[in-house]
C-alpha cells in the first residue's frame, strides 16, 4: 500500500504533527505500506492569484489567520502524481493544494484522510471561527472576511466545496482532539462512521529527564510568541501573574517564570518590576533545546481561548510538565483526559491568578509518573501508526 502524507511544510504546529505521523508510519508500518511526505518542496505552492499569501481576516471578531482560496485552479500534474497513491493523509495543506484540487481528488475515489489541526476545512476560510457559528450551516455574509481580498460570495462557495468534498464516502475526517471532531459532527460535515479522534504522535527523548531542584519554587513555562493574535491570549497570562502578585504578594517569591519566544523582553518589562524571578530562553527552534526547558519546569501555562490538541502539551507532559489552561476546547480536554492540571474558571485575570495559586498549593516534589506514563502511552508513535492504518486502509 502506498500512502502520501501531505502538509504545506514540515515546520509549524500542524507541519510538525504531520511529519511525526509520517515518521510513525514509516518506522512502524514498513511491512504494511510505503509512505512519502509531500510538501511544497515536492509539488510547489499554489499560485498567489488562487490563494493570496496574506491573511484575509478583517479582524472584527478575531485576527486569527483567514486563508483565501478561490478554488479556480487544478494542476493536473499534481493530481496525476497523487493518484499514484492508494491513500493520502492531508493535514494543513493551504498553499500546497487548492480546494478545487481537493475536490478533484475526492471525485477520483482515492482514500483521503483529513487530519484537522483547526477549523479551516469546515469553514469558508477562517482557521478558528471565534464566536461565529455560521460554519455549522453555511458561511453566508461572513463577518470575518476582508472583502477587499475575498468576496462574500467566494467565501460561501469555498465553504460549499469543502462540504461537497466531505460528502464523498472515500473521505474520512480525523483530528487529535474530540473537540474538533465533535464540532465537525455538529456541522454535519461527515457522519459519525467517517469521523475519528486520533491523537498526535510523539516519541520522548530517552536521554532527557525532569531536573530535580531544591529552590522551593514552582517553575512555570509561558510561550511568549504573540501579543498580536487574540486567540493566544498572552496578555491574559501576564495579567494573571500581575493579579496573583496583587492578591497574594508572597506568591512572587514562590514562582519562577520561564519564557520561550520572540517577545520575552516585552513580558519581562511587565513582570520584572513585580519581583518575579524570570528565566529567558528566547526563541527556540531546536527540539532538544525546548525539551531541556520542559525538564526544568513544573507547569505550562497556555491561556488560548480556542485550541485543538497542542504539540506543546503533548511534548511537555512526556517530561512531567502539568498544564494550566483555559476552558471549553482541546486544552481542557487534555487536562480531563489525563486527570492532571488546572483549568481556569473563565478568561479573566482573576481566574488565571486563582489557577496559578492552586498550582503552587498542589505542587509536589516528585513528578507524577502515572501522568507521564498515561500521556506517553496515548501518543506512542506505534499506537498512533496503527490507528492511522485503520483509517487509511
CATH domain class of the largest domain? Alpha Beta
The averaged pLDDT comes out at: 96
Beta-strand residue fraction: 5-15%
Q: How many β-strand runs?
A: 12
CATH fold naming of the largest domain: Rossmann fold
**CATH-defined architecture of the largest domain:** 3-Layer(aba) Sandwich
Order of helices and strands: EHEHHEHEHEHEEHEHEHEHEHEHHH
What does the main sheet amount to? 6 strands, parallel
Give, in spatial order, the strands making up the sheet with the most strands: 2-1-3-4-5-6
Low-confidence stretches: none
Structural shape: globular
Helix content: 25-40%
Number of separate structural domains? 2
Kindly report how far apart the N and C termini lie.
8 Å
**Helix segment tally:** 14
Instruction: Using the CA coordinates, give the radius of gyration.
Output: 21 Å
> How would you classify the helix and strand content by structural class?
alpha/beta
InterPro entries: Glyco_trans_1
GO molecular function: glycosyltransferase activity
Protein name: Glycosyl transferase family 1 domain-containing protein
Pfam families: Glycos_transf_1
Describe this structure in words.
The chain has 393 residues and is an alpha/beta fold. It is built from 14 helices and twelve strands. It folds into two domains: 200 residues, Rossmann fold (3-Layer(aba) Sandwich); 160 residues, 3-Layer(aba) Sandwich (Rossmann fold). The strands form two sheets. It has a six-stranded parallel sheet with strand order 2-1-3-4-5-6, with helices on both faces. α7 crosses α12. It is globular and about 65 Å long. The chain starts with a strand and ends with a helix.
